[in-house]
User: Fold these one by one.
Assistant:
Number 1:
Amino acid sequence: MPTYEELRAQAEQARQPTPGPQRPLIKVGVTTCSRAVGAQETLDAVRKELADRGLEADVMVTGCWGLCYAEPIVEVAHLGRPAVLYGRLTADKVPQLIEGAVATDRVGVVPELALAVLADEPLEGVPPLSASGGLEFFAGQERRLMANCGVTDPDSIDQYISRGGYEGLAKALGMTDEQVINEVLESGLWGRGGAAFSTGRKWEFLRGANVTPKYMICNADEGDPGSFVNRNLMESDPHLIVEGMAIGGYATGASYGYIYIRDEYPLPVERMEAAIRQARERGLLGGDVLGSAQTGARPGGFAFDLEVVRGAGSYVCGEETGLIASIEDARGMPKIRPPFPAQAGVFDMPSNVNNVESYANVPLILREGAAWYASVGSENHKGTKMFSLSGQVQRVGILEVPLGTPMSDVVMGAGGGPPEGRALKAVQPGGPLSGIVPASDVGIALEPEPFKERGMFMGSGGLVVLDDSNCVVDLAIYFEWFAEDESCGRCTTCFAGTRRLLEILKRISSGRGRSSDPEIMRLLADTMSYANCVHGQAAPTVVMTMFSFFEEELNEHLYNKRCPAKVCRGMVRYEVVHHSDKLPAAEAICPTQAVVRENGSYRIDQGKCIKCDACREQAPYAIAVVDEFGPG
Amino acid sequence: MTKITAGPSHTSRYTALDPVPGDVELLAKVRELIDDLSPDNAELLTAFHRIQQAYGYVPRETIPVIATKFRTTPAMLYGALDFYSEIRTVPPAETVVEWCSGPACLLKGSMNIRRVLESILGCEMSQNTDDGAFGLRLVQCDGTCHLAPLVRREGRYIGPLSVSDTIRLARELKGEGEPEPVPESGGLKAGEGQPAVESAAEQEGGGA
Ligand SMILES: Cc1cc2nc3c(=O)[nH]c(=O)nc-3n(C[C@H](O)[C@H](O)[C@H](O)COP(=O)(O)O)c2cc1C
Ligand code: SF4
Ligand code: SF4
Ligand code: FES
Ligand code: FES
């Protein structure tokens, strides 16, 4: 088995992704997000354009920077010059790019297409990709977990190793298991999957279990809608997770691991499986990890291997006991804890469940040390956290910031806030169980306490932004629908509770709310807090935070039968309010022939109208959404 | 590197099944597909995925075959199958439109899109039309929220969609070339609340 030094030397020798003389390096990010907007076609077009023109260049696939809003992204690097990122580079723009950035002698920048330059200073008016000014989306970011994202080829173990990858594992193998756990404890790392429990403590529990085999489980179910940070890591830097799990295995005495990936994530499955295969080939997984039998890290060496399990579409399989049941082939129903996984986990054997991002922190802690790790963050929370930003923001994407960063820096700064002309209304953090933060609190620190104080959770990293065109009651209906739909059905409190909440909210949104409804919902929430797992317990959070922070809006629905944002369908209707030359277009687009022409003027047939908004899109001046009940 | 030794607890309830009637060829193919899997390795979900990959769904008649392979009962197996929303037991429609149910899409107007798809294609969400020509499938957010609101068709993402775009798409799928008296509205997206001024003429003419 090769030692780490041998692997490192081998990796450095493998051709490194740097531009050569007269040979630029072109990187194309290919991930789920970018493929959705044609990155694969861009990659093909780059290769074809180079071949057609007989140009010399290296083309490389990378993961992504998290700049979803600007995908597909192509990077062009020339020897001795800062590399330039080009954004929204669909295949049709490839000829222009190759002409301007590769074919011409002056190895120039194409400012019309450029997004950012990988340097500290602007270049030909193109902003730098730096945390201290430059591209807005990068402002305030601290890229540690994401250091390789968009930079390296996720399918290349050599690139990972040559940038310090697996050094953490090598270091760990030179320490005792107790020392490794102490290092993790000292860093203060806590689980990123939602519950924020100390990772080191959890590992201590597993280490203390004296039954074997023990298992390391990676929770890559990422079921919270609007969270996609785990996906980005798996697609862009899969070895980071493999390494983190192997270190965990060594520290706890686990010999095998499962990575449970949700069914909606086919590309992460591919990339994680490829990473596992490569790690095995290099002796970083298997019967004798990094030649540990000879170096005497542990009597008989350290043996560890991994396997990917693909989920099949179930939110509660993200709950750790549900996940374990699903790995065991059963219905993925959460169980009552205790016993905790460290006592009886997968196949009743001691197990440890951590989130993708939790594991991904570990190699960095081991490589750079707990002190380095704790050098960023807030008073009580060290390290960084990844967030995915979506909804009503100008820039959708993924970023990594120190814990404790004001949420407004992310939402309003990096994300640019809501679209032009609209006002921020709220931020929905971390999934269906987490609650809704009102705009007035957008400045709270991104760490667990400020959320807890408000009866919410920070959750796993999703930040979904609402503006004044959105309705809080409507969002609550969505989340209660989701909670009801995904309830595993074990507890009546949960499946019937969510159903009742949903019924009541739907009734309110259709203008048939009753003054007794809030009290019933509070009572339900109280009862549901006795459900077996957090799914049922926290399902009413969104409704409760609506009571706390959006009471006026709720009461408007309840007592005045009015939806201020004009979203709740039962409380609005479409009317022709002006004459306009766009009304024929409205008539033509209407899917139900509800825009009726009579004696040269138009009206909406309310019996036919399904309130889809298409006519108003066509004729926004002539057609308006008006309140169904009471004065418009 | 010790792998599991204990099989899932429910295998203990296994009793051999009688040979199952059904499409002999299909059943033989399915047996072949899952031949290398083992109940001891907890590979039932893998079996479902492989079969669905091959046929677009897990045909009900294959359940006893899978049960036999995994030394469990069809009831147990059906229980597991039924639990997972991405495993289907009815054949997919000829044309399937996947509609994202996620929050970013919701806030950007996905409900309007759903409504027109249901109305024009003639089927409810998560259903197929009676003739099997069209089907609507509810999917969860996969983090492509920069395209919200979106639908997917044959793996292709379509978004951000306005309601008008969606209507045109649905009509096209139905083969209804629609008479368009005016050029497209150009970029106005669903839910972008503020009414834009349409033309100077109507501003003057229609103000009253
Ligand atoms: C309904 C429900 C869904 C959950 N989904 C996830 C998930 O998708 N990913 C995740 O890491 N944790 C999820 N969790 C939290 C896990 O139960 C568990 O706390 C976590 O995986 C532990 O890892 P950590 O300590 O690294 O955070 C979920 C919990 C509940 C109650
Ligand atoms: S609380 Fe809900 S999801 Fe959790 S075990 Fe009970 S029924 Fe299942
Ligand atoms: S809202 Fe939709 S259904 Fe109603 S009139 Fe307008 S286009 Fe037709
Ligand atoms: S571009 Fe990679 S996560 Fe969106
Ligand atoms: S909410 Fe639809 S893609 Fe995320």
Note: Residues A 31, 33-34, 64, 66, 68, 71, 228, 232, 398 surround FE2/S2 (inorganic) cluster (ligand 4) (CB under 6 Å).
Number 2:
Amino acid sequence: MNQADFPLLNTTHLAWLDNAATSQKPQAVLTAMTDFYSTTNANVHRGIYRLSEQATAAYEAVREQTRQLIGAASTTEIIFTSGATAGLNLLANALSSYVLKPDDVILLTPAEHHSNLVPWQLQAARYGAKLEFLPMRTDTTLDLATLANRLHDRVKLVALAHIANATGTVHDIQTIIQQARQRSIPVVIDAAQSVPHRSINVQQLDCDFLVWSGHKMCGPTGTGVVYGKQAWLEQLPPWQGGGNMIRTVFLDHATWNDLPYKFEAGTPNIAGVIGLGAAIKYLQTLGFDQIQASTETVYHYLLDQLATLDFVQVLGPTDRTQRSSIASFVVPGVHPHDVAQILDQHNVAVRAGHHCAQPLLRQLAIPATTRASVYFYNTTADIDQLVIGLKQVYSTFHGYLSRTNSGAL
Amino acid sequence: MDIYQEQILEHYKEPHHFGELANASYTRHEVNTSCGDDFTFFIHVTDAGIIDAVGFTGQGCAISTAAASLLADDINHKPLAAVLEYSSDVMLNLLGIPLVPTRLKCALLPLQAVTRITQPPL
Ligand SMILES: Cc1ncc(COP(=O)(O)O)c(C=O)c1O
């Protein structure tokens, strides 16, 4: 649905199936950004002149839109960043310095995007803390039977993805948040793959922190959001220093601005945030129920079609209620780069590689996978194009599929 | 031009010189972490400095595996000193197919193992 709103999809015969990496942008977002630069461009929170006041008002209006999007209590809880990676680094730095002592534990899952793993590794090394991981089944679902024991006394932080980007596996964050809450352990949810697809309410979820990127939800690159409960954000120290995050500066020290500005140092990505606002408006006008329904129709068609190809093996849970929008697969005997290259010759864009989740693939003993990921604007015709490409993969490599010395899976 | 030509697929299916060399004078392991391609080259060199036996092990995509196989064929019986000076053009000529920038990494991984083979391991 709505492919016509997307200039790039409208002018090519591309089957864009790399939505988990980034989404395409509707005209409304491009127009909002051009309009901002053409009519309203000025720095925010600075000028006394009207243009700066207009720019500030437009920027802050997106904060209110974002608050509504995730049902946060207050705009003071919405911090704009350059993306999920920046948000996770912000939280890893600020939270770790506030809560971690030597021998403390940060609890993660083995399936995290590198951006929700490496920042914690860096902080663990800095504070003498350790990383522990929730157990994962071979179908990549989390085994929460022993969750109570995993949330032991030394665990001071929990961080995990709502939806794993390498496989599309949906984690039961509700259960994890509830049990962590009983022990007063803060939980960081990496929602990079979920906010674009479903309506999220942070107060219902009762999560302490939620992080995502704008560019996977029709917004521009270089935008992202950190949600944090006010009580937490007030206690945490700032991460980056600079303009806007300060109240008073002396030669040897400074005091901090109010929330959320304490965490927004320097000139923000103003036009990007304006574009993000246009993206949120675009998605809300379609409605998240509709977005989820359209995506699911194409996604289930994708899974059905892949199931008919006996040379393709899809990773992740078979229960579709535990999956979202992503199908990561292998063609035994053919390297994912070769699969993706042949698909490219059929104008099908998919991702091939480790999807920034090397430890997960190592645990599954797979060097790399091919990943097709859908969004609401994809159609069953895109999937048909993928299937034609995959049949070409089979006919090209037919007779080579059972080799054992190379590309073997 | 389709990069999956008969020659490439044949080398992928039955790579030449595949296997370890027991009495290797030099070995070198190289990986491409972005796709998991992983090759180890083994060569034996005579007193006169001529490569007289080649082997390689590992796994990779069709392009990198075919590159390894073609390169192994090419360097056998050549002076080591000359092989160490190989440029990427030599490898691309051996492959004889057009490659997009992301696939160059695949194509050049075996060459990297060979041209670094006398260097101390990382
Ligand atoms: C689950 C998950 N977390 C974090 C990220 C990092 O997002 P970005 O690269 O936009 O900062 C991504 C995107 O690739 C992701 O899928």
Note: Chain A has a mean pLDDT of 95.
Number 3:
Amino acid sequence: MKGYILKRLLSLIPVLLVVAVVVFLLMHITPGDPAAVILGPEASPAEVAELREELGLNKPPIEQFVSWFGNVLQGDFGTSIFMKQPVSQAFFEHLGPTLSLAIMAQVLAIVVAIPLGVLAAKFRGSILDQTFMGISLLGISVPSFLLGLFLILLVGVELKWLPVAGYKSIDAGLLNHIKYLILPAIALGSMQAALIARMTRSSMLDVLNANYIKTARSKGVKETIIVIKHTLRNAFIPILTIIGQTFGTLVAGAAVVETVFNIPGIGQLIINSVERRDFAVIQGSVLLIAVSYVLINLVIDLLYGVIDPRVRLGRK
Amino acid sequence: MRGDTMTELLLEVKNLKVHFETENGTVTAVDDVSFSVKRGETVGVVGESGCGKSVTAESILRLLNEKHTNYEGNILFEEKDILKLSYSELQKVRGNDISMIFQDPMSSLNPVYTVGNQIVEALLLHQNLTKKEAESKAVEMLKLTGIPLPEKRVNEYPHELSGGMRQRVMIAMALSCKPKLLIADEPTTALDVTTQSQILDLINELKDEFNMGTIMITHDLGVVAEVCTKVVVMYLGQVIEEASVESIFSSPLHPYTQGLLKSIPQIEGPRDEKLYVIEGKVPTLTQIPKGCRFAPRCEFATEICRDKMPQLESYENDLKVRCWHFKDIQEKRGGMNGSRNESQTVNS
Ligand SMILES: Nc1ncnc2c1ncn2[C@@H]1O[C@H](COP(=O)(O)OP(=O)(O)OP(=O)(O)O)[C@@H](O)[C@H]1O
Ligand code: SF4
Ligand SMILES: [Mg+2]
């Protein structure tokens, strides 16, 4: 098990390298001289040239890349020229809100979607099933920013039940923290919920047809126990996969929702940094996001083993 | 006390019809099936693939999806009609009075729970036991089925066991509550030959020990010869012959049964002899012949066969057959049959 985790962590390095190359290239292809942007339109060419020198922008790109990536491997992601602080510090400061939002959206999606998917499968073909699946189709097709704007207008502005926008850290009290996150989490998690509900339904339908379900029925097991004990646990394996695969999309989608709800998360950090041509922050953040993807997937893979004994023992 | 006499009726299936609603209309997979099982008796149900053996078996426990299934007729278990039981009454019968073993041991156990957990579940459902007691009973049942190291196996997952062992687990689970009737749906088909006969011996032994009525579904007449007292032969959803094991093997009445018997490979016979196969294919459920269902493949078929469906009629004491001409055929085959039997006794 330890060996397995170590192997997975080592596999991070090539992933990092590829992501680093791509981000680096993108930065250098996009027009706009960072030095000029930082200094503003009034700066003289001499000042710009001086800053370019200071930032190392005059060196050949290969050299720039090697020195940057070398530092990254040692845990140094560079310093933001604009914010005057280390990139990793800026990143982790903005990570809190994003993580809170993503986790809340994910939890909300799971808590709503799995029971709905289970019921839809159990009562396949009924009005209930058709209604749930209709709603889930809507959930997949409505973009999160649109849903977010709609929620702001309806719940925030019209009904005044919840704050319109903004963010309160957990230090301001858990309830307060959650109150600000509910609407953005719904906007962000609805597509996730729709996907999970559909996967739950189809996976449950598969398992309900399995021979061991017939065996359980032939023993006299009650139908609710059949669904919860015998079916759901088996059906959970593909559900977990889809949760894992889409958690990445969720984090990416968070950037959009953060903008709509004015939440100071990673999304905002990156968008602001792009506007300011703050190369170090963009490159560092994207890399750190890639690392978190790999780590999340590792956790999901380890969870398979908890649910399915075949995976557990196969890895010994 | 139960089952003092062999003559006591345990299960009586009367004119059972099973209709499935499918996308292409209704199909009748089981059409007028009747047979009975006495306490302690083993009844074989044989027939080609698709003739409705499993549908019949699963009807007895009402395991078919009832949203798309309609039953007609009666399934009397200890004189109560299973088809009329409420859902909660049915759950008390399942696994307690009537148990079932399925064809594929590889997929019949839940992969995410230990075998012990799955046996204990049945025990806790039907017997007044504490969890502890149920756990030791599970080990006891596993030991009874001849699994080595039952104390260890009880904590293992299905995928850690071989097919034969899984089938033993299924048997342990099915018998844990001492059912009065065991339905075994091709319990050995998925196993290798040695394991097959071990499992059959085991079922046979335990059946005597528990005085259990047994329905042994199979397409293997060898299995029938080994464990059954009575045989029901099915063809395309109908019973076409019912007889004791002795008379099925010595003087089969229905042309289909005769064909089935001729198609068993004879180990002792001459090697170059070609294996007999019944000609033609089984029609599908959507194109059932109007007269005798076997007519398109029957060498004795006449006008009446193609026109009118024969009924299952009693003959002599214990025999039943569904064929217009079985008496004529019997006479015609008389001499040939005798010599065949003779050669078999010489060989064996
Ligand atoms: N749910 C269903 N809906 C429609 N048709 C069905 C359904 N279940 C079974 N059948 C049909 O009923 C017929 C009998 O099937 P059954 O499984 O009883 O055959 P069998 O005798 O057990 O065959 P085998 O030896 O292959 O197990 C088949 O033609 C099958 O296609
Ligand atoms: S009724 Fe006719 S067709 Fe059918 S089995 Fe008998 S002889 Fe053959
Ligand atoms: Mg079958």
Note: Residues B 53-54, 185 surround magnesium ion (ligand 3) (CB under 6 Å).
Number 4:
Amino acid sequence: MVSTEAATAVMKRPYEVEDGLVRLRAGRCPACNAVYCPARLVCDGCGHRGLEEILLAPRGKIYTFTTVHQSTPEFQTPYHLCYVDFDEQVRVMLPAAGEERPRIGEDVEIVLGTGPRLVGTEPEEGPHALMVAGPATGRDEDDV
Amino acid sequence: MSDVYVVGAGMTPFGKHPDKTAAELGAAAVLEALDDAGVSLGEIEAAWVGSVFQGMAMGQRALGEGGISGIPITNVENACSSGSTAIWGAAMSIKAGMYDVVLALGVEHLTGAFRGAFTPDESDVEAQRGLTMPAVYAMRAQRHFAQYGTTSEQLAAISAKNKRNAVANPLAQFKKPVSVDEVLASRMIADPLHLQECAPVSDGAAAVVLASKRKRAALGGSRAVRLAASTLKSGRAEVGLKDMTVEDLTWRAAEEAYERSGISPSDIRFAEVHDCFSIAEALRVEGLGLFPHGEYPARVVKGEADLDGRLPVNGSGGLLGKGHPLGATGVAQVVEVVRQLRGEAGLRQIPGARVGLAHCRGGKAQGVEGTACTVNILTV
Ligand SMILES: [Zn+2]
């Protein structure tokens, strides 16, 4: 059973754009500070119900990556994927923007894009709306 | 609580069976296991049946084809660990004193049903962004490379070993040895994993008959193998930034199995582990505590995991060589361990093997480390 509140959360855009910077929506446990992206109903670490909504930093660091050469029909291969680590101590899987092979440890920023999905196969905007990790620009990251 | 014994084992050839249904494959494995045990249809008191993509009531269809009906039948779906979860359930029912003779079956008919790469369920956020199962393991492999200096050649050696072992297994899907160079020359699926480092799509079934100590004595014979421990765990939520080369899920299933059986990693003589990808075998055996963390790929190159090595891994050919009919895989691993412990493994026999381990781990869902993991330790 999903509460109305959770159902609303699912419909929400999974990111916010502030001053041109894309921030992923996430949930932080007010009791133990564990961060989940996407958010969830109950904290797995401590069982606390109800996470507070936060926006992740617009930049992270590539933890690992791959180049996918075979996928399902909705995707145009080859494409790069990476796991991005954020300062908030949460890791998120994102397609990488552009053709350049990602590198472990590389700083990236979140940008909006269609990623490797073929035109016409994009899901309705929802928890899965598309965004990608692009090379970090020289621009200073603001606080948070 | 009664000890649990495997008193019968059966398995169809793994591979492509376009002319057979899943029910027919399942029934064939069941009948072979019953004959092997010397148990009649009417003696089976309950059954657990694992499958993943076979639709509703696979167990009733397969057992019905095999002449078994009316008993409690429990259908199990637990990703690639479905079959071994069936064994866990069946063993638990004997330990609980509910039954004396229970069947566990794993069955899957996949060819024709699938093309391309497996993905997590399509509602999964990561799958919608393009994550595939090979990509998950490819990204873990990139970390193993970065942290331990592991190379593509070393991973290819894992595939070459398992495909070589499969040649000695008449039930295996692949019948030809493949060299390290041939593995590396095969098509890239998800960098650094090549086609020959990914388990194939397969059809097949495997079954075991489990019995209580009392029933085992009544059956007589000396071919029974003791199931010293059977454990099941699910993946923990991923909180924080964990080392993706570490298999917490595998270790928790193994730790409980070692504890329950009183058997330690150093007692294990050989292992069948879930090598859905070449890198997966390394992550498993390191997670099981059978090889030092980060060192397995280099040790494979030295021959330590060969059939005549210090600790043979996937002597059956593993998923890479024998084939991977998802729901059947976990049961087939136990069938292999049973045949090794009975000295019935033919050309791939490990001399003097008395303790073997089967590890099965499946699936991926956003936010958890893995779906399900089982460890079965068997001994004579
Ligand atoms: Zn918490």
Note: Chain A touches chain B through 38 residues (CB under 8 Å).
